[in-house]
Amino acid sequence: ELLDFRKELETKGYQKTIEVEEVKQVPVLLIDCMTSYQAFLENVDVVYQKKRNRSIRYIKGFKRFFRLYIEALKLKKINVEQLKFIDVNDKKVGYLTEYLIETKGFKNKSYNNIITALSTFTSYIINEYGLNYKNPFFGLKREIQIKVTSITNSEFKQLMEVITPENGLTEFDK
């Protein structure tokens, strides 16, 4: 064994073999970042410890959210094919929220799911590629205010005047 090791060292010129890690190409465009995240969700070239089993429904959900994101930007005449990831700012996120609420009519649950997913996507890209960029989805209000309509105080008082123990309880035949 020792002789084999000595021969190996001699053939390598007594140099230690260093494994060079492949440098990731940082995606610049928003579209490329979406593609990169989609590959991550599908575990393409993901190191073993970071792999997750995600349902097809979960992955398709992100594709739908990305489509909505692109539609919202295109509606405001933004060239999404040339839009850089770091050029997405509060104003462009505002276009998206307006589109989701006003144009698409999404309610709380759907709206919150989309915004949370896109915030997660943005954080992943920032962290994965070490970008010095603030996530414009952070601090975004995650809830749409719903106007609650109920009876007025005077209507409630009128109702209480009408209800009596005699007419307030109805028994049904058993």
Molecular structure report:
The longest helix is centred in the C-terminal third of the chain and has 21 residues, at 108-128. The chain is an all-alpha fold and 174 residues long. It is built from 6 helices and no strands. Helix content is 50%, strand content 0%. The chain is elongated and about 105 Å long.
Question: What's the overall average pLDDT, rounded?
Answer: 86
**Total of DSSP H or I helical runs spanning 4+ residues:** 6
Using only CA atoms, what is the Rg?
A: 29 Å
Give the total of beta strands: 0
Helix % is 40-55%
Uncertain stretches: none
The secondary structure category is: mainly alpha
Along the chain, the helix and strand elements come as HHHHHH
Biggest beta-sheet profile: none
What is the rounded distance between the termini?
92 Å
What general form does the structure show? Answer: elongated
Report the β-strand fraction as a percent range.
under 5%
Task: Please name the defining characteristics of this protein.
single chain; 174 residues; mainly alpha; 0% strand; elongated
How would the blueprint of this fold be written?
Blueprint (H helix, E strand, L loop, with lengths): L1 H10 L18 H12 L14 H20 L14 H14 L4 H21 L24 H10 L12
Helix pairs in contact: 3-4
What's a concise summary of this model?
By secondary structure, the chain is an all-alpha fold. The protein is built from six helices and no strands. The chain has helices at residues 2-11, 30-41, 56-75, 90-103, 108-128, 153-162.
